[in-house]
């Protein structure tokens, strides 16, 4: 789906992403993990068009999308969510969903006079789609609540729902579990799995909760100091000496009692 080839992004004298190459396979839920400062979010932002890379290339299904701005990538089905939800706080959950589809006739004021029937038709279609998303995510009880009043976990569900209001091909999830209670986290995980298995969504997600990563993701890519350190299954990377050292600053072999447990 997406190939990243020798991608580099620097800020002043700091190299945040350092010659990164990876492949995000179509139909997979790829986990991206690593210690704070590893370059994960910068990599997301560079692939998703928020930053222009200093070197390297990004392709989507063979098409070069390097440096394209987010709104162009959105039109091509590349979406992302944020660690801090970006909802329209003064709109209801339903209205937040209905605002997502691009190129709505109602966005042009003259259409209110010359094409009112088309506006009503599109609005009805968007409302029907929003209701489907609300049912899918089981958030009917807050559908008419102002989005600014939602809990952190409910806002993350809303962000996920907004990706369902357009033809998403690749969705980047930035710490979808941050600040979310365990019950809602399980609900979010169920929704991601269903979107992947039933609707063919491809995901790449930054996350620190290894239980959550282990449940959803294969493969898992580990970054450290701006580079890809290792890639494999959740169980493989969790027990990799390089990963343990990147997180803890020392290898597993140096841990007391290692020989007895082996």
TrEMBL record:
GO molecular function, one term: ATP binding
Biological source species: Albimonas donghaensis
Protein name: Amino acid/amide ABC transporter ATP-binding protein 1, HAAT family
Record has Transport as a keyword: yes
Keywords carried by this UniProt record: ATP-binding, Nucleotide-binding, Transport
InterPro entries: AAA+_ATPase, ABC_AA/LPS_Transport, ABC_transporter-like_ATP-bd, ABC_transporter-like_CS, BCA_ABC_TP_C, P-loop_NTPase
SUPFAM superfamilies referenced in this protein's UniProt entry, alphabetically: P-loop containing nucleoside triphosphate hydrolases
GO annotation, cellular component aspect: plasma membrane
Organism classification: Bacteria, Pseudomonadati, Pseudomonadota, Alphaproteobacteria, Rhodobacterales
All copies of domain ABC transporter, residue ranges: 2-250
PROSITE patterns from the UniProt entry: ABC_TRANSPORTER_1 (PS00211), ABC_TRANSPORTER_2 (PS50893)
Presence of keyword Nucleotide-binding: yes
Pfam families: ABC_tran (PF00005), BCA_ABC_TP_C (PF12399)
């Amino acid at each position: 789906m997406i190939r990243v080839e020798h991608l580099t992004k620097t800020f002043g004298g700091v190299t945040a992403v350092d010659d990164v190459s990876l492949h995000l396979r179509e139909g997979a839920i790829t986990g991206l993990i690593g210690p704070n400062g590893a370059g994960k979010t910068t990599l997301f932002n560079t692939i998703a068009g928020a930053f222009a890379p200093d070197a390297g290339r990004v392709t989507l299904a063979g098409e070069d999308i390097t440096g394209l701005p987010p709104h162009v990538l959105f039109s091509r089905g590349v979406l992302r969510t944020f660690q801090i939800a970006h909802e329209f706080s003064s709109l209801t959950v339903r209205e937040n969903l209905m605002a997502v589809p691009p190129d709505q006739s109602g966005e042009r004021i003259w259409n209110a006079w010359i094409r009112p029937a088309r506006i009503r038709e599109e609005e009805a279609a968007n409302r029907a789609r929003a209701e489907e998303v609300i049912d899918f995510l089981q958030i009917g009880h807050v559908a008419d609540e102002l989005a600014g009043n939602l809990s952190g976990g409910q806002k993350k569900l809303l962000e996920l729902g907004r990706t369902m209001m357009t033809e998403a091909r690749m969705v980047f999830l930035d710490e979808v579990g941050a600040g979310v209670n365990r019950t809602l986290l399980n609900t979010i995980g169920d929704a991601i799995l269903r979107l992947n298995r039933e609707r063919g969504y491809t995901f790449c997600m930054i996350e620190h909760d290894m239980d959550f990563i282990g449940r959803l993701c294969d493969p898992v890519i580990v970054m450290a100091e701006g580079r890809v350190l290792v890639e494999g299954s959740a169980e493989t990377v969790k027990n990799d000496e390089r990963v343990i050292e990147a997180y803890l600053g020392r290898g597993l072999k140096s841990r007391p009692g290692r020989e007895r447990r082996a």
